Amino acid sequence: DRRFDSQAFLEGVQNAYRMILEAFWRGDNEELAKVCDKDVADAFAEAIAARAVAGDVLENRLVRIEETTITAASYSAPVARISVCLAADIAAITRDAAGTVIAGSLNEAVQVRDVWTFRRDITSPDPDWQLDETDEG
Question: What gap in Å lies between CA 81 and CA 86, rounded to an integer?
Fold first, then answer.
């Protein structure tokens, strides 16, 4: 794709990372299904359902994204895949059904490293990339 701009792509990844995490934290399966591959959306939906069954509530906040780096890219016509390592600080707490904090702290952010892979059919008029895979980096 001659129009591909790596800096613009990485900015889009940062926006997608924030949007996807926030959708997951609030349990918005509909939003996740729009931006994620079916397998990824299904995995998020399973985790959201398990959280609901347990009565757990997340109060998470993405403090900052420190770094985004393209770590791999591939092309198998017509699909391009790009993996990105994201280093971020997240403040997170989990409360049980009674409202008791069972994990985390909003006062102390935890650094996370994720590797997210995005895919796009470059023949499609839709310029958006879909989250195709997630992993810890």
Answer: 16
Beta bridge partners of 92: 60, 105
Strands 130-136, 57-76: parallel, antiparallel or unpaired by DSSP? unpaired
Q: What is the pTM of this model?
A: 0.91
> CA 49 to CA 28: how far, in whole Å?
11
CB distance 115 to 98 below 8 Å: no
Paired tokens of 61: 């906040």
The pLDDT assigned to 72 comes to 97
Q: For residue 90, what are the CA distances in angstroms to 13, 26, 39, 55, 113?
A: 17, 15, 25, 22, 10
83, amino acid identity = S
Is 78 in a helix, a strand, or coil? Answer: coil
Q: What is the chain's alpha carbon radius of gyration, rounded to the nearest angstrom?
A: 16
